[in-house]
Amino acid sequence: MGHSQAEKAASRDRVLRMAARKVRAEGVTRPGVAELMKEAGLTHGGFYKHFASRDDLIGQAVALALAEGSAKMQRAARKNEQAPRRGLIESYLRKQHRDAPATGCALVTLGAAAGRGDQRFKEAYERQVRAYLDLIAGPDGTSEEARAEAMLILSALVGALLMSRAVADPGLSDELLTRVAGELARYGSPDSAPPA
C-alpha cells in the first residue's frame, strides 16, 4: 500500500472510530458529517473520499460500535475464570461504564434506533444481541433454561444501565446499578452465586 493510500486508510479509520464513539454516546441522529470531519482533523470536502454518504458512515460506525462491545464483554467474562458471568455483570453494571457512554455498550444507546432502523441496522444489532446471549449462556447455551436465563440477564443489564444514565437523581442511578448487580449475582447458576 502506497504512502497516500495508507494515509487515506488511516484517515478513514479515524473518522469511523470517532463516529462509533459518537453513536454510542449520542445515538445515530446526532453526529453530523462536518462535525466528525472537523474532530478528525479533516476537511468536510474529503468525506466522500472515504464514505458514500452519511448513512454509509453511520451504518459502518454502528457495526463497529456493536462489535467493539462484544470484545469488551468477552474480556469482562474472562476476568473471573471461575465465575465468568459474575465478571461480566460486575463489569457491565459499574459506575465507570455508566459514566462513559462513548466507550460503553452500544446496545444501550442504539436499541430504540435499531427498532426504527433499516434491515441492515436491525441485523447488526441482532448479531450483537445473539453474541451476548451466547456469551452469557456459556457452554450450556443450547438448553432452554440457559437461553431463557441469558435473555433475562442481558435484558436486566441493558435496562439497568440505560435507566441509570437516564434518571436525574445520582442516588437512584447508583442504586439501580448496585441492586440489579446484586440480584443478578444471586440469580441462576452456581457460577453466578455471590461470594459468602
Walk me through this protein's architecture.
Pfam families: TetR_N (PF00440). InterPro entries: Homeodomain-like_sf, HTH_TetR, Tet_transcr_reg_TetR-rel_C_sf. Keywords: DNA-binding, Transcription, Transcription regulation. Residues 9-69 form the HTH tetR-type domain. This is TetR/AcrR family transcriptional regulator. It is a single chain. With 196 residues, the protein is mostly helical. It has one domain (3-189): Tetracycline Repressor, domain 2 (Orthogonal Bundle), CATH 1.10.357.10. It has helices at 3-26, 33-39, 54-78, 84-92, 95-98, 106-116, 119-137, 144-166, 170-186. Helix 3 (54-78) packs parallel to helix 7 and helix 8 (144-166) packs antiparallel against helix 9 (170-186). The longest helix has 25 residues, at 54-78.
Helix share, percent: over 70%
Quickly count the helices: 9
Strand content: under 5%
Class by alpha and beta content: mainly alpha
CATH homologous superfamily (4th level) name:
Tetracycline Repressor, domain 2
Low-confidence stretches: 189-196
Averaged pLDDT: 86
CATH architecture: Orthogonal Bundle
Chain-wise SSE layout:
Blueprint: H1 3-26, H2 33-39, H3 54-78, H4 84-92, H5 95-98, H6 106-116, H7 119-137, H8 144-166, H9 170-186
Helix pairs in contact: 1-3, 1-6, 3-4, 3-7, 6-7, 7-8, 8-9
